[in-house]
Amino acid sequence: MPKGESVSLMREVSASGSHYEIGVSIGKQCREEALRAERKFKKRMHEVHGASVQKAVAWSNKTLPASRKFYPEYVEELEGYAEGTGIKFDMIWATTCDYPLDNRGCTDIAVNSQWTKDDCVYAAHNEDVEPYNKDDVVISRIRPKDEPGFIGLCYGGILPTCGMNAAGISLTGNALVPNDTKPGIPKMFPCRKVLREKGIYQALCSSMPEGRGHSYNNIVCDSNGEIYSMEGSATTFDALYAEDGWLVHTNHYLSPRMWKFEDNMHTRFSSIVRYNRARKLLKKELGHVDLSSFKRVLSDHVGYPESICRHADPGLSEEDQTESIFSAVFNLTEKCLFLCKGSLCTGAYKKYEL
Q1: Do strands 12-17 and 137-144 pair parallel, antiparallel, or not at all (unpaired)?
Q2: How many domains does the chain contain in total?
Q3: The domain containing residue 185 runs over which residues?
């Protein structure tokens, strides 16, 4: 390990069985994280959005019928999670729906085997959120009895922000801010459903369901090197294919057909800098991409503190700060995860087998 680097371990949880049993088990293991999320949600509603918790719950309940239709098993997981944590399901559901809350960022890279030193397919992700969220993410190892098992980085143990399953399907991605948000299937649901699929077609279908109320840019890859960036809003999407075998995405729409859904491009300057910088750095690595390549790109500080490796700006309020709280690299060919908790510029990747 290079001098000055350190490995900070992230807590691991695991569960198997029916979806409800998985929810109960993860809820018991992650009760502390769930209670923190509830407290932060209530505070955010009041101080940031000027809305009551009751209003947030009422808003989120409108999304439940469509969500049950799209992926009823995941609703069962969340019902079990409510039992395991001792928190009312209405509150668990409201925090899942996000009300919808703003998201800070993230930088993503995907590369297929034609460009890698070891002939492996990789999907890499920097998670950029408010610094106070860093202790709410855990490594979840989930094995439903009727779906492929997966390893994921999950808020509260149950809300996946990225992951990879035993069928060689990965889900990474980043936040977008569309202007057509409405009550509908929460954007976490497609993330979770992609991780149950066994093929790229099914994964793409799950990444952009009709009836959604919001959407991330969901990057869906498989071990064959099929790489898609699914840019979505509530009402439409575009599928950006990695025609050259690699892609980079940050937090603004790249597809011309999606530009009209950008809520406010004047808030996307960090995204623009990170996107172009990551592309420039990655091009130098093509043909010999390996784990050290991702380390070099994802720890870059051009544009600091709003760089690829993002750092909190002490001049901003706690709610407005953004920081890279972890960096993850999924090897879809060998089915393993390399994870750095905290800032990649001072940390190192640790390997986790699926």
Answers
A1: parallel
A2: 2
A3: 107-353
